[in-house]
Amino acid sequence: MRSSLPVSLIFFVVTAAVFVLQAIPFTGIFLMFALAMFWSVFLINAGMIGVAFEVATGRVARWWILLPLIFYGSYLATTVHDHIALRSLSSVYDAANARVAIPFEATRQSLAFSNDDQSGAWLTQNYALPVAYSANSNFPQGYLSHRMMDATTCAKVATPASRAAFVHTFGFHDGDTVDGMKMESRFCALSMPEQPSLPLVSVSRREEKISEKGLPVTRVTTTVTMPGGNHFRLLGGVAKPLSWIPMPMMGCWLNDARSSWDCEAQFWRNESTPVISGNTRYYRDLRVLQRRCHGTQVTRTSR
């Protein structure tokens, strides 16, 4: 005997009830720590699959199959649209960057980053760049220098007197994924207050939140300013395409910045997906910068 309603609809009722409880700060704070915002991923998908199963077994009318078909069909169409938009944007950015040739000479000029104390160190570790700088107004010199040094020198530098003068050494890893990272034991990163002695090539970054055909994108424009005043611009950034598997999340959390209890319902997106093409997950923008500066990449064996 056919039922008028699928039993699997109970999953949606539970989802709604959990969301309401999350919206109440008293109960929501406990559910937040229980990761209740992720429960809807299982509950909603279980409900959709359950409805399809009940239709297949003849328990409910066939027209109920429209519910999972519309849900998964529309989600798939939107996801495909996101990835097409990402691929199109990647082609545009790659073509624009390929037209840029930055006349930087490491032996005659100093590369300095504004409001960025990470990029310079990474470049000295992964490219044949002897030194890079980052602007820092906390020191009279106005800059911190970043170099890669051998482990023996690092051990000599790591003294209380050096640390008091803000001369620091750090270890660093090779690899692009967490499970593939290896600590570099032969070298270290050295930073210290130092004013560039060569003509300055300034690098600045500007981030913008944009929407590319509905795809959320954080566009990063890297501007390189030469000593003579010429400007070169490179495009990059990250996008947030939908994941291929529907992951609807519904949850609430404490927003410290606004001192409010905020709730949101949305599909999980693959955040920090690089826009420009490449084989690595991270630092693609920096790799493009160094390639356009005609830099030579080094590997762990050639370092």
Question: What is the strand and helix layout of this fold?
Answer:
Layout: H1 10-23, H2 25-33, H3 39-56, H4 66-98, E1 110-113, H5 119-126, E2 132-135, E3 143-150, H6 151-157, H7 160-164, E4 168-170, E5 173-174, E6 182-183, E7 187-193, E8 200-212, E9 215-225, E10 231-239, E11 248-255, E12 260-267, E13 273-274, H8 284-292
Parallel strand pairs: 1-2, 1-8
Antiparallel strand pairs: 2-3, 3-7, 4-7, 5-6, 8-9, 9-10, 10-13, 11-12
Helix pairs in contact: 1-2, 1-3
Keywords: Membrane, Transmembrane, Transmembrane helix
Transmembrane segments: 7-24, 30-53, 60-78
Computed over alpha carbons, the radius of gyration is: 26 Å
Average pLDDT: 91
**Helicity level, as a percent range?**
25-40%
Measured between the Cα atoms of the first and last residue, the distance is 74 Å
Give the class from helix and strand content and strand pairing: alpha+beta
Proportion of residues in β-strands:
25-35%
Number of domains: 1
The topology string of helices and strands comes to: HHHHEHEEHHEEEEEEEEEEH
Unreliable sequence segments: none
Give a short account of the largest sheet: 9 strands, mixed
